[in-house]
Amino acid sequence: MTIENCITKIIEKIPKGVMFDSHYVINQLIFHYHEEYLTFANNNTLSTHGFLAQEISKLKKLVKKQHSQSFSENINRKGSTCALWQKL
């Protein structure tokens, strides 16, 4: 399965109107689609996560990017800012 298909499946499960962030999608990828995530990441985590945020933004029929950012736990269990979307 492509990383784009994995992202779409994750977002489709989010209730309409709910806000979610990049960290949520990344953690779901790691937990539910770890083989696809590892293949995609290829040991370049920072640029990979930026690219994943760009892929989420492309799903204009499913999401609306917010002007503000989210602050949540990243994969290293540290708080950091990331992109924020609303599920349509």
Q: Would you kindly provide a written description of the structure presented here, covering whatever features stand out?
A:
This protein is 48% helix and 26% strand. It is an alpha+beta fold and 88 residues long. It has one domain (16-87). Strands 1-3-2 form a three-stranded antiparallel β-sheet. Strand 2 and strand 3 (79-87) form a beta hairpin. The longest helix has 13 residues, at 45-57. The model has no long low-confidence stretch (mean pLDDT 90).
Supply database-style keywords.
3-stranded antiparallel sheet; 26% strand; globular
The biggest beta sheet reads: 3 strands, antiparallel
Span between termini: 24 Å
Percent helix range: 40-55%
Q: Give a count of the beta strands, DSSP E runs of length 2 or more.
A: 3
- Tally of alpha and pi helices: 4
What's the number of domains?
A: 1
The chain-level structural class is: alpha+beta
Compact overview of the structure:
With 88 residues, this protein is of the alpha+beta class. The protein is 48% helix and 26% strand.
